[in-house]
Every structure is written in C-alpha cells, then in structure tokens.
Specification:
The protein is mainly α. Helices cover about 65% and strands about 0% of the residues. The chain is globular and about 50 Å long.
Length: about 190
C-alpha cells in the first residue's frame, strides 16, 4: 500500500451534534461511596441530610473544628484550611459533574471550609460567640445579601469555573460574617 492509496477522511462539515443532556443524579450513601471526591464534597455524609444540608454541613464543620483544636495548633488548622480549598475545588468539580447539576444543595464542602475559616480567624470566643458566628454565616450563605449574591452569580455554571463559584460565594459569606464580628468586637470595647 502506497502513501497515495492511504487517506484519512475528515469529518463532514456541518453543525456539531449537541451533547446529550445530563440527567441529574440523586445524592445518596451509594453515590457518596462511589468516588473519593464525593466523600469530600458531600461533607463526609453531612450533605446527605434530608433537611437543610447546608446547615448540617456547617454544624459538621463546627464540631470538626472543635475536635481539630484538641489535636492541632492554630497554624496547623490554617494549613488544613489552605489545603482544603484546592482539594475542595477538585471535589466539587467532580461531584457536581457526576450529579449532573451546577450547584447541588448536597455539596457542602463550601460551607465546611468557609465556616472553618470563620472560626479559625474569630477564635478565641466562647460557645455563645461561636453560635452567633454560626447564625451569621448561615444567614449570609442562605439569604445571599449584597456581595454574597454577586459572588453566587459571577462564577455560576458547570465545570471548574462553576465549582470555584460553589466555594467563592461561601468564602464571601465567611468574609461578611467576619466583618460583622470584627465590627461588634470593635464597638464593644
């Protein structure tokens, strides 16, 4: 066979076939066990709560932070939070793709890492202060006022950009929470 006899045909010109729509998948225990990213993004099961998974994820973050304080220094917790951001971005990207939805309410890693940041930066404070931080963070995350709503819209979508958006709006909610706590502490003294 000579080179002139061998030819590769190019695809026929025309409109590209649209990808088949992805059918959303229900997050459950079986889904969570199917991939390591699912464990992380679903907050080790806290995101599977049938009622208010974001609140359940934030409660899990609060308890986990209190346990981490027993074993880790503040610097170690800071490094854990820093490492949790890129790992969470990956986990949220994979999990949202596998769920077939841009921002499932079952994905709670964003609440976890953002509330860890709130507690890490606002500590030391007593249980009442932590409860106030919890309430403020849940308010900013759920109601999405002002900058949190903007952050939720600016990176919305699928893929890595959308997964960054999953994390970004919660980090902005954490920043708003910290601003309120800082203002309260400043005017209290």
């Amino acid at each position: 066979m000579s080179l002139t006899e061998f030819s590769v045909s190019a695809p026929a010109p025309g409109p590209a076939a649209a990808p088949a729509p992805v059918r959303p998948v229900k997050a459950n225990a079986r889904f969570m066990r199917a991939h390591p990213a699912h464990w992380i993004a679903l907050g080790f099961g806290s995101g599977l709560s049938p009622v208010a998974p974001g609140t359940a994820g934030t409660l899990w973050a609060w308890v986990a932070f209190l346990v981490l304080q027993i074993w880790c220094t503040p610097a170690q917790i800071g490094w854990l939070i820093a490492a949790s951001l890129p790992v969470g971005w990956w986990a949220c990207t994979v999990t949202s793709r596998h769920l077939g939805t841009a921002d499932s309410g079952n994905i709670v890693w964003d609440e976890i890492v953002a509330f860890w940041a709130v507690l890490w930066l606002a500590m030391p404070m007593g249980l009442a202060g932590q409860a106030i931080a919890f309430g403020l963070f849940r308010y900013f995350d759920a109601a999405k006022p002002g900058p949190v709503g903007w952050a939720d819209k600016v990176f919305h979508g699928s893929g890595a950009r959308g997964a960054f958006g999953i994390l970004f709006d919660d980090l902005v909610a954490a920043g708003c929470t910290l601003l309120v706590i800082t203002g309260w502490r400043y005017y209290q003294w």
